[in-house]
Amino acid sequence: MIKILHIIDYHCLGGAARSMIAIAKYSSRLDNQFHHQVISLKAPFPDALKLSEEAGMEYLPWQDETERNELIAQADIVHIQYWNNPRMFAFMQSELPPARIITWFHVAGDHPPQIITRDLINHADFAIPCNPHSYELPVVKALKPEIRQKKVGMVYDATDFERVENVQPKAHQGFNVGYMGSLSFSKMHPNYIAMSARANIPDVKFILCGGGNIELLKNQARELNAEDKFQFQGFVEDIASEIAYFDVYGYPLCEDTYAAAELNLQEAMYAGIPPVVFPHGGVKKLIINNYTGLMVDSPLEYSQALEYLYHNPEERIRLGKNAKEYASQIFGAENAARQLNPIYHRLMASPKRARAWSIPVDGNLLDEPVSLLDVVDIPPEFKGAKTFIESIGDTAPYFLTNLTSKNDQELFDTDNKIANSSILLGSGEGGVIQYLNYFPNDGFLRFWTALILEKQGNVGGALRQLMLASDKGCKHWRISWYIAQMAEYLGEIQVLQQALNNLDYLVPNFQPAEKLKIRLNELLEAEKEQIKLTETNYLIFPHWQSDEEELTEELYNLIHKLAILPSPSGRGAKGDGIITLIIDTTGITEEDANLILSGIAMNLMLEEELDLENSLDFALISNLNQQQWSQLLTQITAKVNLKNENQTIINELEIDDLITLDGAGNNYAIFPDWSADQEQLAEEIGQVLTNLAGEKNCTLLVNVDNIDQEEVGLFFSEIAMNLMLIDGIELFDTVNVSFVNFILDQWSNLGGLIKEKITIDSENLPDNLFTITILNDSQENNM
Q1: Scanning 7, 180, 537, 776, which has its CA 20 to 30 A from the CA of 589?
Q2: CA 419 to CA 641: how far, in whole Å?
Q3: Environment class of 150 (CB within 10 Å of its CB; exposed 0-12, middle 13-18, buried 19+)
Q4: Are strands 638-641 and 735-740 parallel, antiparallel or unpaired?
């Protein structure tokens, strides 16, 4: 039995994983000597595990690098499924036991960040581009003929045609143009909606299967008054049921696409659906123009090609028939397995070999070109930036210049090039932002992310990244210049002031900064004495000298709770629908507080996809005088209690009358009907308080709309006294009761902090409360 261990970044239902599963299935069918196993560097997707098990693959879990390397050592052949992302690239650079390694490239390999580099080929015993275009790349042709002959071969990504074996065209109204795959502009043609809508075809319907920027695509269609032409199906596993309704397969991809051998295109062709494509990436070698499909060079030609196929059904039949025959003979996992199995046997004739990254296992190191990275010492704190640059080879040299140059003009020029990175290079798979997620402490990756975000219009996110970049060791003076410009744009006066002070120190007499100094003075003059507030204003007093990790986690959890349920009204012209979190900064500099908050905001955006811009504003305060405190406290919706709280400053202020909430979310709400029978109401509220007495440090918000709060206070005091005398319950040791008269938006903005809305029989809910907020509703007041 020959063990083939496949290593993949993420064992999911994507193209590379499906290709791997199909190869394992047909390789074993053709030669029962092979036993295929798989390691996933990221926790696998359950449906993918089921699919691979059905194909006869054995999944091998692992806990750490040592256990992973033991599994590699036990395998006869290691088959790496490669596309660029930081986790896979880190694996490639790691120390591996002696092995026989095949690397199968599932990308076109000609546009960054999805590049087939010389180091990747040198690292493998056998390297396999997955389409003819990639096999003809300069990096392959530059190899010595004897090396290329020995260790490089082309095998198409493997499609399991059993998925579409029995597709039969189904009758339907109109003319259907299908699309399957990623609906993101990192892959899809940016003019997809416009050029599709432009096609003058009666009753046309564009059927899109897949996930991605669906809302953006819908908005584009809506702006063209063409929304009815597009049908979004989401992810579809049973693609045969969709293909049966396709008349044409419209698959236009962006110019710098990493598309290689596109399984969905192979499947559509095998089903006899004629494709229309652009000559981008590996796709250009999958279609024979005017024989198995149509290849176009412009959006206009794409629209015209669709029109041509609509008006000429006989051409659809001809192209579809040819496509099916071609796909049957050239594509498919069985054909791919017939090519791979001999490669497996050939490798088995050679011993396992040790290897080190950037040192070829074949050939001579002296024959390798010298890179600037080989001779320049990159500080270890910028390992992430260095790794990213290595992963894209020499295809975007301005990143390396930006990392190493001492020339200001070169740095500004390369900043501009980085800012104008493609969607894929900036935020796509293997791009700058994905590498930042893997190397969060790398200052240069944060700086490059800032440049990209600012160009995309996310100035607030860019400013946060710049400040973090500076904190993580990216110290060139132009960082302060960029911070100053963005702070001026956002009206962040204190940040602008600090940045200009830094520029005065680092580059005295820097003339472009003089205009910003004038602008700063204007902003300072115009700044109002009071803090800019909204309808919902929460106040917290963090103890900044407490354990930083514990406090940061507590602030993260609180901000997450406040951000997950923004008001549906959104950010209006005057900040309508926005929560303001007022944060006392006693004991910390504003700059340091901003760094902590910026890090939390960025983590929420990257990990939870929460953008605080439309839900939450921060207002930092310190050293307020008595008059300023008096003005501020009248506008506070509630004080949020923290575990790590500055009790000293709280004790100095007269804030006992403020409504208080538990920052950990241990807050409940009731809506009594004050017109109900008082004895019955007292009994119901008493039961609620009895149940809550077992809670630790909880808050009960009592709605007092249209009733005198003093009267309610006396009513509750009597209930509490009875509980203490009759049942021995010391209520106010555990339960904080706050009487509130919130407007609907304020109730809505509490959604993330409310643990439960307790239902009582004598209840009076405000109109429309549950149309604008989400509260967990306990149907019984016994908790």
Answers
A1: 537
A2: 42
A3: middle
A4: unpaired
Residue 369 and residue 378: Cα distance in Å, rounded?
A: 19
For the domain covering 375-526, report its CATH number. 1.25.40.10
Q: How does residue 201 score in pLDDT terms, banded at 50, 70 and 90?
A: very high
Residues 6 or more apart whose Cβ sits within 8 Å of residue 627:
none
Query: CATH fold of 2-159, please?
Result: Rossmann fold (3.40.50)
Specify the pairing of strand 110-111 against strand 114-115.
antiparallel
3-state secondary structure of 626: helix
Q: Do residues 108 and 21 touch, judged by C-beta distance below 8 A?
A: no
Tell me which residue of 330, 332, 326 sits closest to 289, measured CA to CA.
326
Quote the CA–CA distance of 123 and 105 in Å, as a whole number: 13
Asked if pLDDT for residue 530 goes beyond 90, the answer is no
Residue 570's pLDDT band, with cuts at 50, 70 and 90, is very low
Q: What is the Cα–Cα distance from 520 to 702, expressed in whole angstroms?
A: 46
Task: Specify the pLDDT at position 9.
Answer: 97
CATH class of 667-778: alpha beta
Spatial contact of 19 and 12, defined as CB atoms under 8 Å apart: no
Return the domain boundaries, the chain: 2-159, 161-328, 375-526, 536-658, 667-778
Rounded distance between C-alpha atoms, residue 241 and residue 43, angstroms: 30
State the virtual CA torsion across 320, 322, 325, 328 in degrees, nearest 10.
Answer: -70
Say how far apart CA 642 and CA 557 lie, in whole Å. 11
**pLDDT over threshold 80, residue 771:** no
Q: What is the mean pLDDT of residues 596-623?
A: 83
Euclidean distance between CA atoms 16 and 355, whole angstroms: 25
Q: Is-same-fold flag (161-328; 375-526)?
A: no
Element (H, E) at 621: strand 616-621
Cα→Cα distances 466→103, 479, 559, Å: 37, 7, 21
Rounded mean pLDDT, 64-82: 98
Does the pLDDT value for residue 773 go beyond 50?
no
Tell me how far the alpha carbon of residue 146 is from its chain's centroid: 43
C-alpha to C-alpha distance for 226 and 194, rounded to whole angstroms = 9
Whole-prediction pTM value? 0.69
Residues ≥6 apart with Cβ < 8 Å to 609: none
81: three-class secondary structure by DSSP: strand
The Cα 81–Cα 580 span in angstroms is: 48
Using DSSP's 3-state secondary structure scheme, residue 109 falls into strand
| CATH superfamily membership of 161-328 | Glycogen Phosphorylase B; (3.40.50.2000)
Structure-token match 């009731």, residue found = 670
pLDDT at 585: 92
Q: What percent of the chain has pLDDT over 90?
A: 67
